[in-house]
Amino acid sequence: MSEINEYSGKATMEKITSLAKRRGFVFQSSEIYGGQSGAWDYGPLGIELKNRIAGVWWKEMTRLHDNIVGLDASILMHPRTWEASGHVENFTDPLVDCKKCKSRFRADMIPQENLAAKKCPDCGGELTDTRKFNLMFKSHIGPAEDTASIIYLRPETAQGIYVNYKNIIQSSRMKIPFGIAQIGKAFRNEIVTKNFIFRTCEFEQMEMQYFVKPGTDVEWFNEWRSQRWMYYEKLGVKMDCLRWHQHGSDELAHYAKDAYDIQYLFPMGWRELEGVHNRTDYDLSRHSEFSGKDMQYIDQDNNNERYLPYIIETSAGLTRNVLMILCDAYDEEQVAPEKKPGSPEETSRNENSADDIRTVLRFHPDLAPITAAVLPLMKKDGLAELAHDIRTELQDDYATDYDQSGAIGRRYRRQDEAGTPFCITVDYQSKEDKTVTLRFRDSMEQVRVPRAELAARLRHEIKGYKRVK
Ligand code: GAP
Question: Which residues contact 348 (CB under 8 A, 6 or more apart)?
């Protein structure tokens, strides 16, 4: 596949941020106090979208594999964990400050000529020497604020898996190769937090650690690269907006023998979405050393052979995936007026949004916060009651919405902006012949469906969904 280099989609970060706020996907944290940088709140549509992405990932990484199980480890861990993992020593970014305007930069993110000349890229003032800045949030546990009470907020979910790997072998009788998956919060004191929810101080990760016999690690590394690529294909993401980036020796994390990022072409350019890492036996050998516990695997099927497993890690940002899915789904298009359900009439031009440009989020139905919206054409004449009945019937299986206010064209546009793949409109004909109008978000096509067949038809449409634009 030939690689594209320029973003050519309709989204901009401004449009995504504004839509996210307007429609209740994501709000700035503590907005009434001026906002907290690096932190965001997920609103009613946002939490649904985030949960759906997490659910699809969880199914893909646990339920569809006989040998991968789940875990939910705590955020607070024994501080020795982070000495063993190397984070206390190595989890740093290079930091410079401007002595004049007091701006703070990551030294690897400003032009190298500025760094060499110690010249601030914003005001031209003098920059400080580069110093290492540890990204872990540090706090104290208990009433005394001394070195014995230091505790960290975990900067990755992975370590909770490593320290539990023996518990899981014993309790779940796992045999190598096997995996442990986890979704949870992670915290990093990022120097630069821009681009909305792309890089934040509080975020969520979806990580899977796969324990393999040394010597088979390269094969499993390649296998997981291929599985993770197929995952995005299945999600219906625009595949020409994804590419691999192999870490050079200067980029490799302290634990990695080899690492590839899956990058996505965001409106601000190609950026990391997820990483696949060959972490070798680094983590387990360090935890053996620091805890004094034997972390070796005993292969009972092979004369009790003992070894420290190698670990292949797939590590995706959940909140970063939310941003990717929003950007990927975002579209604007010029449209003709739509037909009014139950009549040959079109909705008038001014019932639709300005100049008949519609904003639409083309989410895969498995990810859409609302799967189906039920809209009575009128509130009166029993149409609202009928629509409520239909909603109640669908509610058990699908995330639904009900909207009876405003012209039907406007209501469709509101659902398009929320990414709702199906609208079900109840009109006068529905009362007579027990049919409803099913309207498709992507094509805006409308078909009449017997009410009795509606649930089965939705199931069929969701299963066979193919993104066309
Ligand atoms: N356990 C390995 C690990 O944490 P990483 O490359 O540092 O590796 C994995 O992070 C993923 O977590 C990234 O690909 C990204 O999607 C997400 N991520 C990392 N830092 C983030 C941040 N500050 N804000 C949002 N997502 C972040």
Answer: 337, 409
Q: Pick from 362, 275, 280: which is nearest to 314 by CA?
A: 275
Q: Give all strands (DSSP E) within 287-329, no chain letters.
A: 297-299, 305-307, 310-317
321: enclosing H helix or E strand? helix 318-329
CA of 301 to the centre of ligand 1 (A): 37
pTM higher than 0.85 for the full model? yes
Q: Which residues is 92 bridged to in the sheet?
A: 134
Please indicate whether residue 314, judged by its CB atom, sits closer than 6 Å to ligand 1.
no
Cβ 207 under 6 angstroms from ligand 1: yes
Give the integer Cα–Cα distance in Å for 158 and 308.
17
Cα–ligand 1 centroid distance for 317 (angstroms) = 5
- CA–CA separation, 423 vs 313, rounded Å? 40
Q: Residue-wise pLDDT tens for the chain (469 aa)?
A: 557 778 989 999 999 999 999 999 999 999 999 999 999 999 999 999 999 999 999 999 999 999 999 999 999 999 999 999 999 999 999 999 999 999 999 999 899 999 999 999 999 999 999 999 999 999 999 999 998 899 999 999 999 999 999 999 999 999 999 999 999 999 999 988 889 999 999 999 999 999 999 999 999 999 999 999 999 999 999 999 999 999 999 889 888 999 999 999 999 999 999 999 999 999 999 999 999 999 999 999 999 999 999 999 999 999 999 999 999 999 999 988 777 776 666 665 445 544 588 999 999 999 999 999 999 998 888 899 999 999 999 999 999 999 999 999 999 999 999 999 999 999 999 999 999 999 999 999 999 999 999 999 999 999 999 987 7
